[in-house]
Amino acid sequence: MFLAPALAGLGTSAGLLVAIGPQNAYVLRQGLRRHGVAAVIVVCVLSDLVLITAGVAGMGAVAGRFPVLLELVRWGGIAFLLGYAVLAGRRALRPAAALDARAAPAESRAGVVLTALALTWLNPAVYLDTMVVLGSVAATKGDPGRWAFGAGAMLASLLWFLLIGLGARSLGPVLSRRSVWRWVDGIIAVQMLVVAAGLLVAS
Residue 116 in contact with residue 39, Cβ under 8 Å? Predict the structure, then answer.
């Protein structure tokens, strides 16, 4: 009862997290430089915990009180996921230039934390990913399945930021290759299509 939604949350969140965005590039950069990486990981993970909890709780309340609004959000989530899949597919066909995570001036530790906060909380895509997409998918799992889904999504966030932050020294050269991101973006595109299909058939 709990394992299936938890694994669904883990996979959905992982698909949304794994992309070369400003937040991930920043975590990688700090990991490569071994400067404030622990603080950056804590900021990113705690922020995701708060946002995912708000999304799961909020959409659960919407499902109970405003089913019509939930339907609108569900269809909005489907549209977003399909668009996300198309963009990931295009990146897979035409991968971007190699990621240079080291190209940046030095920052103070406070500056590192503030930058991580800004890249997280001032990014509209973060709210779409955590509160709208994850929240709307979680709402289709019912109680207590939606909280198992949310727990899986939170675990994905923790594992991802630990991986790219603490493993940056070894992962940096690999993640800078176009061929690697071709495969990553291809997998993301498929994952987002699967999640969109799940939302489409959800009652």
Answer: yes
